[in-house]
Amino acid sequence: MSFIFAIFLPIIATLLIPFLFKKVSSIHTGWFVLLVPVVLVIFYGTYIPSIMNGSTYLDELPWIPSLDISFISYLDGLSLLFSLLITGIGALVVLYSIFYLDKKKEKLGNFYVYLLMFMSAMLGVVQSDHLISLYFFWELTSISSFLLIGYWYTRDRSRFGALKSMMITVFGGLMMLGGFLILGIIGETFSIRELIGQASALSGHDLFVWALVLVLLGAFTKSAQFPFYIWLPDAMEAPTPVSAYLHSATMVKAGLYLVARFTPIFALSEVWIWLVTGVGILTLFWGSFFAVKQTDLKAILAFSTVSQLGLIMSLLGIGSIAYHVTGDLVTTFTFATFAAIFHLMNHATFKGSLFMIAGIIDHETGTRDIRKLGGLLSLMPVSFTIALIGSLSMAGVPPFNGFLSKEMFLEAVLNLQHFDLYAMDSWWILFPIVAWIASVFTFVYSLYFVFYTFRGKHKPEQLPKAAHEAPIGMLVSPGILATLVVIIFFIPNFFGNAFIKPAVAAIQPLAYQVPTDVGFTIKAWHGFDSPALYMTLGVFLVGYLFYKTIPKWSAVYNTIPSKVSLNGMYDGLMRLGDSGANRFSSIYMTGSIRNYLVYMFAAIIVLLGGTMWIKDAFAIRFDNLAPIRFFEILISIILIVGTITILVTKSRLTAIIALGAVGFTVALFYIIFKAPDLALTQLVIETVSVALFLGAFYHLPKLNKHEKGKEDRGFRLTNFLIALGVGVMVTLIAISSHSQKLKLSISQYYKDTVYSEAGGGNIVNVILVDYRGFDTLFEISVLTIASLGIIGMITLRLVKKKGDRKIENK
Amino acid sequence: MEILMSILIGFLFMAAVYLILSRSLLRIIIGTGLLSHGTHLLLLTMGGLGGKAAPVLSDGVTDYADPLPQALILTAIVISFGVTAFSLVLAYRTYNELGTDNMDLMKGTEDND
C-alpha cells in the first residue's frame, strides 16, 4: 500500500462522522473515531524497526503536475517520531474525549470532524517534503485549530481566543509562505530534501537571510514563542481534549518540527543560531516566570507549554552550532539536538496527562480556578497521583522522564562555553544563568499547580459541584501517559534508540549517516563531577524556598501594568487597525461628490503633468498651422465672453442663455472649419438643449442660493486653481500632440473611395452610415435608452410604503 | 490657428471644471455642457484645421477637410445630448423628491443619514 494515503485517512473518515452522529446516536461517536488513530499508530509503528536502521521512505501523489506541485510524503526518523506522537496522543485524546464530552449535550459531529481534519493536517505537515504542500497542511492546522478553539461558539471568550490564534498563526503562516517561495526561487526546487542537498550554495544568496527570518516567523508564531505566545493562553477556551492535543502535544510542536526540519538548510547562518537559541531561552524564562501568576489551571499549563517549547527551541538552536564546528565539538553540540528531541517527547507525555487532569478537575468540580480549589487529595487520589507524576516530571525531579531531559538541557547550555565563534565566548554565560532561573520558576509553578489544587483546605462551598473522583474511562488516557513518564525514566535508552536517534540523524545528516551512528546514551546519574547535577540541586533548593514563599513575593506581578503587556499591545494593535482604517476612510470618503471630483481632477493634473514633466514631452511647432483669420478671432472672443458670463452670472436664465450662445458659437466654428453637418446638428441640438434647460430651470431654485458668505472664498479659490490646472493641462497636451504628429491620417482612403465604393458624395455621412455604421447603430441605442430612462423617471413614482415620512427641505 | 484653438479649448475646460466643482446641480450640468463643447472642438482641432473645402465631393476640389473627426464629433454630439437630457430630467426629479439642488446636502441615503 502506498503509505501517503495514511495522511488522508482521518480526513476521509470525517465524511462518515455526521452520518454516524445522526443515525447511530446510541453509541458515542468517539468510539468510531478512535479506530482511526489506533489503526494509524499500528501502521506507523511497523515502520519503527526499519527507520531505526536508517531507511527512509518516499511516496508521491501528484497534485498540480504542470506546476510541479505534488504531495510528497517523506518518512524518516523525525517525521516518524512526530507521526507517532500525533496518532498516539490522538488516540488517547479521542478516548478521553469520549468520557469528557456528553453525547447528548454536545455537537459531537462537529468536534470529531474538526479533530480528524486537524489530525490529517498535522500528519501532512510532518511528512510533507514539498514546501507548497507543507504550507497547505500548515494552514489546514491553523483553520482546524481555529474551529476547535471556537467549538463552544456561543461563548465570547471562545470566539475571541479562536480569532486571536487565527490572526497570529495565519500571520506567521503567510510569512512562512514568503520564506518558502524565496527558498523555492533561489534553490530552484520546492523539495526539502533537494534544498538540503544544496544548503551551502543557498547560504551565499542575498535573499537567504530573508527566507530564514520569514520561515522562523512561521515557526515562532505556531510554537508560541516570544512575543507571539499570547494566543496560546487564550486558546485555553477550547474543550480540554483539544488543549491537551493541539496546544501541548501536537500543533504547537509544528513550529519545532519546522525548525528541526530546516536546520540542515539554515544552520549555516549565524542569524539562525542567535535567533533560535535567543528567542527560545527568552520564551523559556518568560513563560515560566508568568506561569506562577496564573490562577486558572489551564492558563498555568499554557504558560508552562510556552516555556517548555522555548526550552526545546533553544536546544535546537544550540544543536545547530554543530554545523559550525569540527572534531569532537560536533558531538558536543549534537547532544543538544538529542536533548531537544528527547524533551519534546517527554513534554508530550507529561503535558498531555496534566491537561487531562486539569480537564478532570474542571469536569468534576465545575471550576478551574486554583483559588477555589484545594484539598482534593483525599477526594481524587488517582487524579492526584497522575498530576503529581506529571508535575514532578515537568519540574525535573527523578524518577520521572523530565529529570533526564532537564539535566541534558542544563548540560547542553553549559556546552556553549566551548563555542568561540560569533562573540559567543563572552556572552555564553548568560544562557546557563537564564536557563537556571527559568528552571527555578518551572519548579515553582509545577509544585504550585499540583499542591495548590490537591493540598490545603477543601472549600466545598466555593465549588459549583461536589467534588469526587472521575470515572475510570476518563482516567485511562492520563494514566497511560503518566505510566509512560515513569517507564521512559527507567528505560530511556530503549526510547532513545527507537525514536530519538533516528530523529537526530535526520536533523544532523552531515554528522550521522544512520541512526545507529548516534552514540549518545541517556543516564540518570552523571557522577559528582557533572556541573548539571549541582545546578539541578540548586534548582530544587531555591525552587522550594520560592514555592513556600509565593504569597510573599507574588505581589511583584502586580507592579507590571497591564497596558504594557503583550496582550495589551495586541489589543491596541487590533484597535488601531480597526479605528485607523475607519478614520482613514472617513477622512477621504466624505460622501460629498465635490471632494471626489477634486481627487479626480487633481489626479489628472498630477499624473498628466508629472508624465509630461518627467518625459519632457512638451513640444510646440509653428509650421503646418492653419492661418488665423479675422472671423475666427471674433468668434473666439464671443465664445470667451459667453463662457465668462456663465461663470459670473447670478441668474439662472442668463447662464442658460449664455450657454446657448456658446453652443451657437461652436456651431459657427464648425461652419468656419468646413463641417456643415456638424454645424447643422449643433444648431438643432443646442436649440433643443436650451429649451430643455429652460424647462428644468423652471423647477429648480435660484443659482446663487448656495454660494454666499466669506467661507466660500476658500472653496472658490480651490475650485479655481484646480480648474486652471485642468485647463492648462488640456492646452499643453493639445499643443504638444498636434506638434508631434507621427502618422498620416487614414482619411485619404475615405476621400478616394467614397463615391467608387459607397456611391455617396457626402463623406461624413457615408462614414456614419456605411464605413462606420456600427457607431451610429449604438448611438441610436444610446438615444433610445436615454429617452426610455427619461420616461421612466417621469412616470414611475415608487413611493416607500413604510410611514408617510416626507423629506424636509433643509 | 491650432494653437489659438488649443488655448480656447483649455479655457472651456477650465470653465467647465470650475462649474462642475460648484454646489448647484444646474451649474454642474451646465459645466458638463461646456465640457462636451470643449471636447468636440478638441477633436476637430486635432484633426487639423487646414482643409479648404467641406468634405462633400465636388468637381475640381482636392483639399477636403478631414471627414473622420467630423463623423466622430457628430456621434459625440448626439450622445452628449442624450446624456444631458437625461441628467436634466434627473436633476428635476431629484429636486422634486429631495427638495434641494445643493450637492452638499445630498450625502448618504435615507437609511444611514
Automatic annotation (TrEMBL), chain A:
What topology in the membrane does the UniProt record assign?
A: Multi-pass membrane protein
Q: Where is the NADH:quinone oxidoreductase/Mrp antiporter transmembrane domain?
A: 128-422
Q: Which Gene3D superfamilies match?
A: NADH-ubiquinone/plastoquinone oxidoreductase chain 6, subunit NuoJ
Give the protein's recorded name.
Answer: Na+/H+ antiporter subunit A
Assigned keywords, A-Z: Antiport, Cell membrane, Hydrogen ion transport, Ion transport, Membrane, Sodium, Sodium transport, Transmembrane, Transmembrane helix, Transport
Give GO terms: molecular function aspect only.
Answer: antiporter activity
Q: Name one GO biological process term.
A: sodium ion transport
* Residues in MrpA C-terminal/MbhD domain copies: 637-702
Stated family: Belongs to the CPA3 antiporters (TC 2.A.63) subunit A family.
| Domain NADH-Ubiquinone oxidoreductase (complex I) chain 5 N-terminal residue range list | 64-111
Report the locations given in the UniProt record.
Answer: Cell membrane; Membrane
Provide one Gene Ontology cellular component. Answer: plasma membrane
Pfam families in UniProt:
MbhD, MbhE, Proton_antipo_M, Proton_antipo_N
Which residues does the UniProt record annotate as the domain MrpA C-terminal/MbhE?
Answer: 716-793
Chain segments annotated as transmembrane: 6-24, 31-51, 71-99, 111-128, 134-154, 166-187, 207-232, 244-266, 272-292, 299-323, 335-361, 373-395, 427-451, 472-491, 531-547, 596-614, 626-648, 655-673, 679-700, 720-739, 780-799
From TrEMBL, chain B:
InterPro entries recorded for this chain? CPA3_antiporter_subunitC, NUOK/Mnh_C1-like
Q: Where are the transmembrane segments?
A: 6-21, 28-51, 71-92
Q: What is its main location?
A: membrane
Pfam families recorded for this chain? Oxidored_q2
Q: Keywords, A to Z?
A: Cell membrane, Membrane, Transmembrane, Transmembrane helix
Q: What Gene3D superfamilies does UniProt report for this protein, alphabetically?
A: 1.10.287.3510
Name the membrane topology term: Multi-pass membrane protein
Q: Where in the cell is it found?
A: Cell membrane
List the record's Gene Ontology CC terms alphabetically.
plasma membrane
Q: Which family does it belong to?
A: Belongs to the CPA3 antiporters (TC 2.A.63) subunit C family.
What's the protein here called? Na(+)/H(+) antiporter subunit C
